[in-house]
Amino acid sequence: MKTIPVTKPFSPPIEEYKKYLDEIWERNWYTNNGPLLIQLQENLREYLGVREVACVSNGTVALQIALKALGIKGKVITTPFSYVATTSSIFWEGCTPVFADIDPHSLNIDPLKILEVIDKDTEAILATHCFGNACEIDFIEKIASEHGLKVIYDAAHCFGTKYKGESIFNFGDISTTSFHATKLFHSIEGGAIFSQDKNLRKRISFLRNFGHDGPEKFSGVGINGKNSEFHAAMGLCNLRYIDEILERRKHQSELYLSGLSFEKSRTVQIQKNTTFNFAYFPLIFDSFELMNIVKSELEKDSIFPRRYFFPSLSSLDYLEIKQPTPISDEIASKVICLPLYHDLLDSEIEKTIEIINHTVFNYD
Ligand SMILES: *Cc1c(COP(=O)(O)O)cnc(C)c1O
């Protein structure tokens, strides 16, 4: 039986990639801000309508560099419902993650809960636009400006998402994203950092390249956050297909939306003013038990949804501050993401829908 995983990387025609390989060999320039990387940054800048794109080696180092660039050292208020890298990068940077619980409908950090945990040591908010759905950006910006906090958005799920008609990467002091192979747009491994502030962009360019300010001069501490020509080549190939990828995702999501009975389950509520990219299809069941039964019924037919995101990050054992996050804990226990990737067939979605509807119908 054909296995249907939760996601699969998009693969461009191999001839297109091979053409870049020939070029790379010819030039003998494999990494260190090469011409393909510069081209990718330029093409992305144009496609997204952002000021500048700083490509890095992955979405995790993007978060680490964002925290460093803003000089954050104290408490960072963050969401418990995200991929682990959101929290672990705060910790890795020697800062203290403090959780504010999520809104049960958007699955994003609840601004009112942010207000409850702000104290004199709070320096920043690091919020994930979970599953590609925008946070309450206006409210978060207002809180940040009233309390003198920096805002970083982990926009790893957000390629193609727009807020108020512009790329969501344009919001916050810094936005970061991931171009990992499992993401909607990818360069195998990779990521990017975006900022509206010229000085910050300059800091970021030093930080991602060992602090180099020219070959014999350094401007502060840095890390190796560069990406290679081989990764850039994959990004350039994939970017040609991005509109097709976004269209397909939308069509597939509409099949799920119209076919699922949503009896004893619901999906995420999209934030207003948001053009959603349909990156993921989360399904939140009424109980852990029902979620678990549906998941095993699907697995019997070789369909493998994933428990994104479980566990709730507030349960990580290396955290110093334990903040109760009952909404995140509860949702994490009963949510799955359904299969969604470019080559997934309509018939496979229909089969998935049928199994879910049938299982829920027969459950009491
Ligand atoms: C994938 C992901 C990351 C990490 O990106 P990598 O490129 O894999 O390092 C960070 N945050 C979120 C929300 C993610 O989904």
From TrEMBL:
The keyword Transferase applies. GO terms for biological process: polysaccharide biosynthetic process. Transmembrane segments: none annotated. Keywords: Aminotransferase, Pyridoxal phosphate, Transferase. One of its GO terms (molecular function) is transaminase activity. CDD domains: AHBA_syn. This is DegT/DnrJ/EryC1/StrS family aminotransferase. It holds the Pfam family DegT_DnrJ_EryC1. It comes from Arthrospiribacter ruber. The keyword Hydrolase does not apply. Belongs to the DegT/DnrJ/EryC1 family. InterPro entries: DegT/StrS_aminotransferase (IPR000653).
